[in-house]
Amino acid sequence: PAGISLEDATPSSEDSSEIPSCCPLGKDILHMYLQGDDHDVSLKIDSTSFRAHKCILCARSGYFAAMLSGPWSESNSDEIELIGVAPEAMEIILLYMYGAVPNLDPSQCNITHVLAAADMYGLCGLMESVAYALRRYYCHFFHKPCTDCCNGVLFTLPLASTYGLEELWRKALKWTAKHFARVWSNKQFSLLPQEIQKKCVDTCIEGIVREPFHLSFLFHSVNLTEFQNRC
């Protein structure tokens, strides 16, 4: 929408009514962003530029508040070059900051890039939305395991660990411990960082200590040598 090619600086024609907003005020602010009205700064990523407003950026993000109100050279610039963020992720970041309800369907965005950008810019609310999207689209709300959510939970674990999504991390660990026989045989499990594999095994062992009757099932479900090696 408001992300524009440097070769085409015409205002966006996208209607803000097509994008859901969080509230009536958010709808008005979102319209201002999409139309590029009275913008006073452009955020440049490679060949893409996003028209924005310093007051909104500062109000919504501590990162931008420090950049635009402190001694940094960017505080007096009308164009800021950003690094370490993909243009597609930045589009979602800006839509969120301007009051839109972000579309985090994995078919529509790279959720890893969005999470990294939300963490970089200190957008805790967006990180919570990403955590919900991971639970919904990747973990299937931790129901009985299927092929998709087995892969999805294993995809989610490193992200939850890296970005401090504590509740999601605990639920994912608990789910892997409950369904260890299905999860540990998944190729994706062997590709996890060793510290996360160990945490999964430790969580499973803690569950066995609390509920010893699961021990015989464990040895029937998982190769004993493999289990000892993982411990």
Rg over CA atoms: 22 Å
CATH level 1 class label of the largest domain: Alpha Beta
Strand order of the largest sheet: 1-3-2-4
Number of helices: 13
InterPro entries: BACK_BTBD8 (IPR043225), BTB/POZ_dom (IPR000210), SKP1/BTB/POZ_sf (IPR011333)
Organism: Capitella teleta
Domain BTB: 39-106
Pfam families: BACK_BTBD8, BTB
Short description:
Pfam families: BACK_BTBD8, BTB. The protein has 231 residues and is α+β, with helices and mostly antiparallel strands.
Please give a structural write-up.
Strand 2 and strand 3 form a beta hairpin. The protein folds into 2 domains: 138 residues, Potassium Channel Kv1.1, Chain A (2-Layer Sandwich); 91 residues. The chain contains 13 helices and 4 strands. The protein is 57% helix and 7% strand. By secondary structure, the chain is α+β, with helices and mostly antiparallel strands. Strands 1-3-2-4 form a 4-stranded mixed β-sheet. The N terminus is likely disordered.
